[in-house]
Amino acid sequence: MLKERDIPEEWIWRTIDNPDWENVGDDNNTHYFKSIEEHGGRFLHVVVNPHVSPKKVVTVFFDRTARRQK
Question: Which contiguous run of DSSP H or E holds residue 10?
Fold first, then answer.
């Protein structure tokens, strides 16, 4: 999916390791948000399930509504 969405894996780790903000969603997953300058400053949204071992990335996408959510 990363290749299809043209998202380098490094951006995912950058988002998880140093998010602009994060929250726990209604789904009990952790949602990380990070502005990616190399992609026009758009916000990458990474959803992680922290309740499994190892933690699992559920989905990754550029969130067009993230500016309004912050």
Answer: helix 9-17
Q: Which two tokens stand for residue 34?
A: 């990070």
pTM: 0.90
Answer for the pair 37, 26: CB distance below 8 angstroms, yes or no.
no
The 10s digit of each residue's pLDDT in 35-66 is 999 999 999 999 999 999 999 999 999 998 88
Which uninterrupted H or E stretch holds 29? none
Q: Which two tokens stand for residue 51?
A: 């309740």
* Burial class (CB within 10 angstroms; exposed 0-12, middle 13-18, buried 19+) of 45: buried
